[in-house]
Amino acid sequence: MSLGLTSRKEQIKRRNKRVLFSFKFIFFIASISATFYYAFKMGGKIASDDAATWKNLYNEEKENNQNLRIKLGSNKADVEQLTKLLPNQKTRDLLKIIHKRNADGIAVMRMTNLISGMSKTEKCTTKTEFKRMMVSTPISPKTRKVSFAKGLINIDAKGSPDLNKNGKLEEWFDVNKEINLNFTLPGGETQAISSKLPIYYSITLRDYQYKFSIISGRKSYADISMIKCDL
User: Fold this and answer.
1) Pick from 114, 121, 128: which is nearest to 213 by CA?
2) Cα 86 to chain center, whole Å?
3) Angle at the Cα of 221 (from 216 to 222), degrees rounded to 5?
4) What is the pLDDT of residues 174-221, one digit of tens each?
5) Same-domain pairing of 95 and 154
6) Strand order across the 190-195 sheet
7) What is the CATH number of the domain that holds 185?
8) Closest by Cα among 20, 58, 191 to 114
9) How many domains does the chain have?
10) Which of 77-81, 95-99, 196-200 has the highest mean pLDDT?
11) What is the residue range of 142's domain?
12) Are residues 103 and 199 in the same domain?
């Protein structure tokens, strides 16, 4: 009787073990499945996010490239237009002169009127006017003017005093420094320029152009020559 009871207990014990093992196995499989499912979902989400990010980057790059092509096309058109306007070095040199004179304070409209009014052939008088002008300094401040074209154009100049070998200021101007020239025209208009000698300058009055050359003369003086040309 006790032997049969013992055998039955052993059978129940083995069955319980099998049930427990089956339960653990099912739980293990379920856990693995859940892990794979979660990893799959997360991987899909990451892949989806990466795809969206790369798509945005692609669209931004595409837009940037399109803008760059538009800008390059516009720049190319500008370059082609400038090439047509400035076909050679002489024309480009003229533009540099115009830019410099405008930076010196000469109005572009005045230069435009001057150029547009010029004739194909230049006719200048054979007679040249010469004048010697004293250049004033802070040590010798008295202004001395010279007149050209029968008094139509008056010129005066100011310079920096020269230094002697002892480092003291002299009355005469330093020929190696800039001087200030004032051209006074009819009506009181004044054209002022500052530059080192020699200086070459032109003034247009009515139908004529007056061309001046200013060079260093004897001590304290500048020598000025002028020719008159038709436009």
Assistant:
1) 128
2) 19
3) 40
4) 999 999 999 999 989 999 999 998 899 989 888 888 999 999 999 899
5) no
6) 146-148, 153-158, 179-184, 190-195
7) 2.60.98
8) 191
9) 2
10) 196-200
11) 124-230
12) no
